[in-house]
Amino acid sequence: MDVNFRKIDIDQYDEDVLLDAELYEADPRDPAQALNDVKQKAAAVRSSLAKGDTVGALSLVLEDAPYGPNVEEAKNLNLQTLVSILNTTKATEIPGVVKALSTDAQDTLMKYLYKGMALPGWGDVSGSVLLGWHEKLTEVAGTGCIVRAMTDRRLV
Question: Is 55 helix (H, G, I), strand (E, B) or coil?
Answer without folding.
Answer: helix
